[in-house]
Amino acid sequence: MELGERRAADAAAAQLAAGVAAYGLGVAETEILDRRRGTTSAAFARQVAMYLCHVGFQLSLSRIAAAFERDRSTVAHACHAIEDRREETHFDLWIGALEAMLRKAPAPGVSRELAQ
């Protein structure tokens, strides 16, 4: 996969993860993907989306940072913050359900021939 294709696939993964986080938290996807920090709710939803990209799509922190237009350290902080919350049973079940949604998604471009 070429660099441009990989970046496009990573951006699509980030958008899908943001959509799942938006669905799960009732925050607008546009707020999650916004360059500004935004509200506390939007910032938390963005952390969830970044975490979902990491565990659901197995993307590296650097690739997630590029897809969300953030610093790698910001993504690392987000992943640690969400991972720490997994000790809470209710939160773990909730985030696990969101993870499962992403893991069932087909790989980007796999279904391209279906569109033709």
Portion of residues within helices: over 70%
Beta percentage is: under 5%
The number of distinct helices, counting runs of at least 4 residues, comes to 6
Structural class comes to: mainly alpha
End-to-end separation in angstroms reads 21 Å
The description of the largest β-sheet is: none
Question: What form results from the Cα inertia axes?
Answer: globular
Instruction: Give me the count of strands.
Output: 0
Average pLDDT reading: 92
Spans of at least 5 consecutive residues with low confidence: none
SSE arrangement, N to C:
HHHHHH
Radius of gyration (Å): 14 Å
Care to describe what's here?
Helix 1 crosses helix 3 (40-57), helix 3 packs across helix 5 (72-85) and helix 3 (40-57) crosses helix 6. This protein is globular. The protein starts with a helix and ends in a 13-residue tail after the last helix. It is built from six helices and no strands. The longest helix has 23 residues, at 3-25. It has helices spanning 3-25, 29-33, 40-57, 61-68, 72-85, 89-103.
